[in-house]
Amino acid sequence: MKKLAIIATKGTLDWAYPPYILASTAAALGYEVQIFFTFYGLQLVRKDTSCLKVSPLGNPGMPMKMPFGPKWFRDINWNIPNVIQANIPGFESLATALMKQTIANNGVATIPDLRELCVEAEVKFLACQMTVELFGFEHSDFIDGLDFVGAASFFEFAGESDICLYI
Amino acid sequence: MNFDKELDASGLNCPLPILRTKKALAELTAGQVLKVIATDPGSVKDMQAFAKQTGNELLSSAEEGGKYQFFMKKK
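Above: the input entities. Below: the structure tokens describing the complete assembly.
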């Protein structure tokens, strides 16, 4: 059986997708998969996923398009200067709400759904114990089934993996 | 073409059509055929790749009116 090891280090809604999409797909293809969640990546395994947001601030790669209205309106890319984005309270929450609507419009799975699909496919989740303490989390903040370990435990699997991704 | 089970993955985007296909195949026995309908254009190449890597046989792949239709025989 081929093995895929992923290190998930980012804690935003956009960066939650690559590890879960790749892990669930690999599992469907017959891979044995482990994801090591460390630093901000810990946000991806919290019970409450509402902490996952996306920020267009300082992110020139992110199109700002509206998920509603006629096609000509949806096609407009709203180039809002960073200085304005940074000064509007709740801008990040607004962008996140728009992104979630876009995700739904495009038949893309939600993060809780993708995560559940990974669990069903027996993807193993490891969480970095050091970062849990560093950030002041409790084990009860996270979904069940996590192994709280250190880097050495990850290498036990990663060292024998066919593919290892740092995300 | 005869089939034993049908999966409608219309409107779903990557990787859901593949994940649903995998799940649907698990409910079949070896030699049975699954029909999959999808609207994700990426699924054409992905179904081929899925078949190649899992050993299930992609019997046919066709497009009609913006919908893709696949017949997959379980290994």
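Note for the figure: Chain B has a mean pLDDT of 95.
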